[in-house]
Design a protein that fits this description.
With 257 residues, the chain is α/β, with parallel strands linked by helices. It contains six helices and twelve strands. It has helices at residues 13-22, 48-54, 76-83, 96-108, 145-155, 215-224; strands at residues 2-4, 31-32, 35-36, 66-70, 88-93, 114-117, 130-136, 157-164, 196-198, 211-213, 227-234, 237-242. An eight-stranded mixed beta sheet has the order 1-6-5-4-7-8-12-11, with helices on both faces. Strands 2-3 form a two-stranded antiparallel sheet. A two-stranded antiparallel sheet has the order 9-10. The radius of gyration is 19 Å and the shape is globular. It binds S-adenosylmethionine. The site of S-adenosylmethionine has 18 residues, from loops. S-adenosylmethionine is lined by residues 27, 47, 70-73, 93-95, 98, 119-120, 136-138, 141-142, 164.
C-alpha cells in the first residue's frame, strides 16, 4: 500500500511527544517539532553525524529528480532529499513500524514523501528507475546481499547510488590479480582480501546481521554489481555511478533469465 503524505497543520508538541513515545524505539534521532526521537542513541546523534560528512557529496539542488530510499527506516535520508527539492521521493522498508515513524516525521515536517512497505527483494514491483537510489545500512542485514544489489541494478538504479554498509576486518585495499592459480592459497590468508564475515547467530545483539564485508569486499561487491565508485565521503559510505554490468560471467546471470 502506498501512502502519500501531504503537508498538514503542525501537531502540538504534546501530540508529537505522545506519538513519538507510542512509536518507540527509534533508530533515527530526529528533532520533530522540538521532540528528539532517540536522544540516547548508541551512535550519538545518528544519522545527523553521518549525514554531515555525506551531505557535501550529494547535489544541493535535486529539483526534477526522483529518489528511492531503500530501508528508509524513519525517513531521515528521504526527508533530506525532499528538502533538497527532489520531485518525487519514495521510501521503502520491510518493517511497517519504521514506516509509521517515517510517516509521522514527514507529516510533522510537512514533506510530501511516499512510504511503502516493500522488501528490497521486491523492488521490481516499483516498475520504474530513480535518478538517485539510497541503500544505506541494509546490505549486512540481508541473507542475500548480492541478489539485492543485482535487483537494484536491474530494476531501480538510474544514475546514482548512495551506499553504506557496516564494515569489519581490514580497511586495507590491495590490488588483486584478475585470476589466481588453484594452488595459490596464500592470498586467502591476506586480511585485505575481499571477505564477507558470516554471522550465524547474532552480532551486537542483532539476529538480523548476516554478512559483514571488510572494506575490499564492500567495494568489490559494488563494482561486481555495476556500480562504479566515484566518491568515498566517509569510511563506510560510497557514492556510485550506475554503469553497465561487468562481463564477469560467461553467460547471462541466472536470475535475469
Ligand atoms: C540499520 S537500518 C538503516 C536505516 C537507514 N537506511 C540508515 O542508513 O540510517 C536498516 C533498515 O533496513 C530495513 N530492512 C532490513 N531488511 C530489509 C529488506 N529486506 N528490505 C527493505 N528494508 C529492509 C530495516 O527495517 C531497517 O529500517
Amino acid at each position: 500500500m502506498t501512502t502519500s503524505i501531504s503537508p498538514q497543520t503542525p501537531f502540538t508538541r504534546e501530540q508529537i511527544e505522545t506519538r513519538v513515545r507510542e512509536l518507540a524505539p527509534w533508530f533515527h534521532n530526529m528533532n520533530l517539532g522540538g521532540v528528539q526521537t532517540a536522544p540516547d542513541h548508541f551512535l550519538f546523534d545518528y544519522p545527523n553525524v553521518k549525514w554531515r560528512k555525506i551531505a557535501p557529496f550529494v547535489p544541493e539542488d535535486l529539483s526534477g529528480k526522483t529518489v528511492l530510499d531503500i530501508g528508509c527506516n524513519a525517513g531521515f535520508y528521504a526527508m533530506e532529499m525532499k528538502k533538497r527539492g527532489a520531485q518525487r521521493v519514495v521510501g521503502i522498508d520491510s518493517d511497517e513500524r519504521y514506516l509509521k515513524q517515517a510517516r509521522l516525521a514527514a507529516q510533522v515536517n510537512g514533506l510530501d514523501i511516499e512510504f511503502e512497505q516493500l522488501s528490497v527483494y521486491e523492488i521490481g514491483a516499483l516498475g520504474t528507475k530513480f535518478d538517485l537510489v539510497i541503500f544505506m545500512g541494509v546490505l549486512y542485514h540481508l541473507r542475500h546481499p548480492l541478489l539485492a544489489l543485482d535487483l537494484i541494478h536491474e530494476h531501480v538504479a538510474g544514475d546514482w547510488l548512495l551506499f553504506q554498509s557496516m564494515q569489519r576486518g581490514s580497511d586495507q585495499v590491495q590490488p588483486l590479480q584478475d585470476d589466481y592459480d588453484f594452488w595459490q592459497m596464500d592470498i586467502f590468508q591476506e586480511e585485505s582480501f575481499p571477505r564477507l564475515y558470516f554471522i550465524e547467530n547474532r552480532y551486537s545483539g542483532d539476529a538480523t546481521n548476516w554478512w559483514i564485508p571488510n572494506r575490499a569486499a564492500a567495494e568489490a561487491l559494488l563494482r561486481s554489481s555495476g556500480f562504479q565508485i566515484v566518491e568515498h565521503p566517509e569510511a563506510e559510505v560510497y557514492l556510485c555511478r550506475t554503469e553497465e554490468l561487468p562481463d564477469l560471467l560467461d553467460g547471462p546471470r541466472p536470475y535475469s533469465n
